[in-house]
Amino acid sequence: MKEKKLNPTIAMVLSILLAGLGQIYNKRYIKGISFIVLEIAFIVATFDFLWLGLWGIITLGTIPGVDHSIFLLVYGIVALILLAFAVTFYVFNVLDARKQAIKLNNGWEPPTFSQAVKNGYDKAFPYIMTAPGLILLIFTVVFPLLFAIALAFTNYDLYNSPPRNLVEWVGLSNFLDLGTVDIWKNTFASVFTWTIVWTIVATSFQIVVGLILAVLVNDKRIKFKKTIRTILILPWAVPGFVSILIFAAMFNDEFGAINQDIIIPLIGGEGLPWLTDPFYTKIVLILIQTWLGYPFVFALFSGVLQSISSEWYEAAEVDGATRWQKFRHITLPHVLFATAPLLIIQYTTNFNNFNIIYLFNEGGPAVQGQNAGGTDILISWVYKLTFETNDYSMAAAISLIIGLIVSIFAIFQFRRTSSFKEEGNM
Fold first, then answer.
1. Which domains does the chain have, with CATH numbers?
2. Does the record's keyword annotation contain NADP (predicted)?
3. How many Å apart are CA 393 and CA 269, to the nearest integer?
């Protein structure tokens, strides 16, 4: 008697109704029962928490002094993460039931229990080993990111702090305030403009200085190359925060060595307002970052330059190429091709370079009509909004903007970088 064919659609529908029913329909009883037990256990263990989390993330509480909006928001995000795992499992369960029904209809013989366990272990082993890392990643990266994104759409600040007051969803209000409310609009425009200028100028300076020094030291006529390289890399060996604090003392308006020992003896007066005038402070910050950043670029370029074959330069000399032409058509393309991804990282790192901005002058000096200092970049402004004025929702909104800018820039540049293309053409 011909065995009755299985209907993949029925198997799929049964698995949708209850995880494991489709497998039982396919006569994979152990797998089906296991899926049913997993689903029931998940529902029993997490139902109350999921209900509280979903209610909390929708309402953020209803009774001031009793409901803690931030705790409810955290519960809600965790509930969504758990639901994402559950949905992933459910989709796998449905697809597995349909796939196995088709395979059985095509004459596939199910493995024995011992074979199934062995095959399952072999297939699942990579996932078992990476599962702890994945869970850690979710709760140390994904969860904080989702929490920050959620805060950007609330009114969580000093005046709306639980449990005394409830936090409310305000939609795009924070983002609209950045473009419409005068103090936010003026501050954001000023800080954003300076952040872009700071990122481009400071990073470009350190790259140019590192490239020039690497090319000079790599020249055949230079002697004592190892000694020179060691000296040039010394700024990299000193911890950055130590160098920044030393420079902050040197450029102090009242007792700094730059004013007292150099500026005043040369031009007289009281010296230059390095820490009290945003223009001079910005110049100093760019110079300090160039000092701190060029050693890494210098070391990076030095390694690449030594890998370029001397035969290419010899062939160029035979063709009558000048030094500039050899640099432009041989040296520079090779250097940029090999280091482009790391140079892009230099720009994105300086975009969020909090240390130098805050340690040198805490983002100051103050600017009238703004709630950020004259040299604050976006990330240092976010720090002040979070820890000084407790405007958490606005800080989260600006952080979201920072993340989008850095992500878009990095993705766009990496896609255009030759070293990420299979062809490898320069």
1. 8-151 (no CATH), 173-420 (1.10.3720.10)
2. no
3. 46
